[in-house]
Amino acid sequence: MNSNDxxxxxxxxxxxxxxxxxERENQELQHFxxxxxxxELERSIIHExxxxxWAGNLGRWEWNVKTGKVIFNPKKVQALGYEVSEFSPTxxxxxxxxxxxxxxxxxxxxxxxxxxxxPAYEVEYRIKTRSGAYKWFYDxxxxxxxxxxxxxxxxxxxxxxxxxxxxxEARLEETNRRLAEANDAKNKVFNIIAxxxxxxxxxxISFINLLEKVEFDVSKEExxxxxxxxxxxTTNTDLLLQNLLSWxxxxxxxxxxxxxxxxxxxxxxxxxxxxxxxxxxxDILLSQEVTPDLTALADENxxxxxxxxxxxNAIKFSHPHRTxxxxxxxxxxxxLIEVIDQGIGIETEQLNKLFDIGSVFSTHGTQEEQGTGLxxxxxxxLVKRNNGRLWVDSHPEQxxxxxISLPEK
Length: 409
What we know:
This protein is of the alpha+beta class. Helices cover 48% and strands 21% of the residues. α7 (198-212) runs antiparallel to α8 (220-251).
């Protein structure tokens, strides 16, 4: 019986059913051919484009999933500092060089692509070079061939060296971080200005209003008290304004250290003279212990500002009838200056906040003197610009010692 006789014996229903089966098989065959052609086309395009040398830091690779063998552009291996002849053409040769922090994410991405969970393998990772440094790469690939069982057989991809891009991004991130810190510091300084300038000026205005009254009559003692208070307020406000000016200049890089060799004794004596009245008001003795003919290499004006802040704080946080010692001597090829008080001291958890512009830490003196905390932050900045160090040793109710270390020559 020939095929025509066979179809003639089929009834109409069977014939329609058979035609539908043939049509479905034909569609499946066409889909298969299209998919195969598309895969071949994609693979051909990838290979054709990537046959070029590493223009734009571009390279290609092909991985045989079954054998583990890798065909790679020699430029990638050379970019890692290796010769092609000494680099094994296996996937493990590359994955073993992955940065530990990138290894699992890279392997997981590949596994997800092999299992069909994502359409392509796409990652950024670091690979160790022969020198021990790491380079960044962007890697993208996809399955282009399956075996007879439908399992992935070959994956083809492209890889870019993005080290320069990553380094630029890191620099940009660091710049943004510093800008954010600077902006935060600026806001804190503005808060200091708003709070600590308002209070002294309010006090000055109150005294002026009091003196302005016609019926107000004061004794000599009251007059001396008012003058003393006005002097104290204006002296502290003047110091605050100078600190604010110096700090703003230091943050805009407009203040530069001009180190010169000079004697310390006259400088320390000059600064102590500025606070003689303030110290007497609390019956505090300013004692100077400076090695004769001791010199330092620094910007004298900057060091003057630092000492002014340290001695002012020492007086502010000292109890009446105490002694503040300013000592300067040589130690281990450095000049060491110490400002030693017998005041209220500082809690251990607050010590790290003293020199950080990002932290707000200020407190009242033993006679409710106002403080901003800006002076120490500025002092730390100025000492650093003179290649020195500023640190403190303090214990509550035992006093504080502020140390300045400067190069001798």
